[in-house]
Amino acid sequence: MRIEIVVNGDRYVKEVMADLSLLDFLREVLGLTGTKWGCLTGDCGACTVLVDGEPVVSCLQLLRQVEGRDVTTIEGVEHSGELDEVQAAFVANGGAQCGFCTPGMIMSTEALLRANRSPSESQIREALSGNLCRCTGYSKIIDAVLQAAAERA
Ligand code: FES
Ligand code: FES
User: Fold this and answer.
1) Which ligand 1 atom is at minimum distance from the Cα of 130?
2) Percent of the chain beyond pLDDT 70?
3) Is ligand 1 within 6 A of the CB of residue 42?
4) Fewer C-beta within 10 Å: the chain N or C terminus?
């Protein structure tokens, strides 16, 4: 089938299999490998991207369901080669160790901060509850989100 979609501000028109997932499209067709291939069951959040600004686990999303919509991946977060506030705060606070969960964490954080410029710790934990991390114990991630929110406020 023919699909038209906008990813990180670029419009693509592609012929794809009807059952292709958004995750496989991003990684295998567009080569945007920042979005991670984790559980593939919707449980880990490593594949989180934004669709029209809302966080979505791309492993469970069929590409055809996001036809014509606006997708943002971790590659679309930076500003002209510079880390954005959320990315920089993760680095500064040790919020990334192995880094496997980090793109999904950052995308969920970006969605949170668009909706709530000054989230409480409990609101941050709720917003990131679908993103699993095996490394950091979460407290450094929470610190990173609080710092990013303060810098954007
Ligand atoms: S890979 Fe999609 S939620 Fe785990
Ligand atoms: S930094 Fe390793 S899984 Fe989160």
Assistant:
1) 3
2) 100
3) yes
4) C
What's the length of the chain? Answer: 153
Q: How far apart are CA 140 and CA 54, in angstroms?
A: 24
The class of domain 2-76 in CATH terms is alpha beta
| pLDDT value of residue 153 | 82
pLDDT at residue 49 tops 90: yes
Q: pLDDT tens across 99-135, in order?
A: 999 999 999 999 999 999 999 999 999 999 999 999 9
Distance CA 95, CA 116 (A): 20
Cβ proximity of 96 and 31 under 8 Å: no
Question: What angle (nearest 5°) sits at the alpha carbon of residue 77, between those of residues 73 and 78?
Answer: 135
Full-model pTM? 0.96
3.30.565.10, 3.40.50.300, 1.10.150.120, 3.40.50.1820: CATH of 85-152 = 1.10.150.120
Name the residue with the closest Cα to ligand 1, atom 3: 42
